[in-house]
Design a protein that fits this description.
Layout (H helix, E strand, L loop, with lengths): L2 E9 L5 E5 L3 E4 L7 E7 L1 H4 L3 E11 L13 E10 L9 H10 L4 E5 L9 E3 L10 E12 L12 E9 L11 E8 L4 E9 L3 E3 L4 E9 L7 E12 L4 E12 L9 E9 L10 E3 L8 E2 L17 E12 L1 H4 L1 E11 L4 H7 L8 E7 L16
């Protein structure tokens, strides 16, 4: 069976270094993070006695660039990985092996592994569109030639790929379906309203509808006039120790209302969280990208501590609010859940080396022609 896969090619401005990237995503599986691999080819006359290096840097921007003054910057750039790309024979993935067979002996494979607890890629929509650089966490992979490891790459002589670290959901959720219940008691007249909220599972997926079961038990002398449901995104910026919340999906319904005294109400409500372009909303990808999704919930291994995370922590909650009238006020409840990408079996096949030889119909495209925000793990149709 022949599979068609894309490999993206990019050449340095001086035309001396060319790199081929099979995917641009570091996929975090909680227990481990899959590497990013590819192939680099360097002009022999340009290389001479120098070495080829691969470097990954992360930029954490927590303030607007136009607000910076002399001596004060609202961003931090950290070098996470720097390794020499050697021409020695080594075990590589099937896709990289296929690229090397087409490029000849000058091709050098590289495989980059991020350190543990590296933050996930997140972009925050700015308050003003004039902001030249987006707030959030971004990664760059650079392939370049240098004499010493301490030497910084010249952008004109380096191939630089924007890469991402994304989190995929576990194979299945082992947690019990989340349930929350709240009761409000009234004194005059006596009675209470009980609101119960339940999800089918604690793990929801981007772009897919989520079903919530709402139950109301009204034994008070109050009337529930309407019911509203919201998906709330909570964002915590660790560098500045600030946090804020945004409503990324909402619905209000009068169906089944009013819920009169001494009555019960039960309803299943379906709501689909979709990317929202608004100030402070955390996205995976830039706001101008058509396929940018909401940022996934930040997941950590059991051994990790919250203080170890440098970046932006994202979480989600489902909020239900009952309108009990001007005298009764509102009754609300929040139920936390996880919003993540579901990892398909075809993507897993690309991220792992198969045991048997596989033939690929290799499609090489210029990286500059790729639409921004599109993941390189996507496959072509077979």
């Amino acid at each position: 069976m022949v599979s068609s896969v894309r490999v993206f090619k990019k050449t340095s401005a001086n035309g001396k270094v060319t790199a081929y990237l099979s995917r641009r995503d570091f996929v975090d599986h909680i227990s481990h993070t899959s590497p990013v691999d590819g192939v680099v080819v360097v002009d022999k006359e340009y290389l001479k006695d120098r070495k080829v290096f691969a470097r990954v840097t992360v930029t954490y921007r927590y303030g607007r660039e136009e607000d910076e003054v002399i001596g004060q910057h609202f961003s931090k750039e950290l070098e996470l990985v720097k390794s020499e790309v050697v021409a020695a024979k080594q075990e590589v993935s099937d896709v990289v092996e296929c690229v090397m067979s087409k490029l000849g002996d000058d091709a050098r494979p590289f495989c980059i592994q991020l350190p543990a607890h590296a933050p996930a890629s997140v972009t925050l929509d700015p308050e003003h569109e004039s902001s030249s650089r987006k707030l959030g966490v971004t990664y760059e992979l650079a392939l370049y030639v240098a004499e010493h490891p301490e030497e910084s790459p010249l952008r004109r002589a380096a191939v630089i790929f924007p890469v991402r670290k994304v989190q995929f959901s576990p194979a299945k959720s082992l947690a019990q379906p989340p349930v929350a219940c709240v009761t409000r008691t009234f004194t005059l007249p006596t009675g209470k309203i009980t609101l119960e909220l339940q999800l089918q599972q604690d793990l929801c997926f981007h772009g897919q509808p989520m079903e919530a079961q709402v139950k109301i038990d009204n034994t008070a002398k109050k009337t529930v006039k309407s019911l509203g449901m919201q998906v709330v995104q909570h964002v915590e910026v660790t560098m500045t120790n600030t946090s804020f919340s945004s409503v990324v999906a909402s619905i209000e319904t009068y169906e089944g209302c009013p819920v009169i005294p001494n009555s019960r109400f039960s309803k299943t409500i379906v709501l689909t969280p979709l990317p929202l372009r608004a100030h402070g909303v955390a996205l995976e990808g830039n706001s101008q990208d058509e396929d940018a999704s909401l940022a996934s919930s930040t997941m950590m291994s059991a051994a990790a501590a919250l203080s170890d995370i440098l970046g932006i922590i994202v979480s989600y909650a489902l909020r239900v609010k009952l309108n009990c009238g001007s005298l009764g006020g509102d009754l609300s409840i929040e139920l936390p859940f996880k919003l993540m990408h579901g990892e398909s079996t075809t993507t897993k096949a690309l991220l792992q080396r198969s045991q048997s030889a596989v033939d690929y119909n290799l499609v090489i495209e210029e990286y500059s022609a790729m639409r921004r925000g599109k993941s390189l793990t996507d496959e072509l149709e077979e």
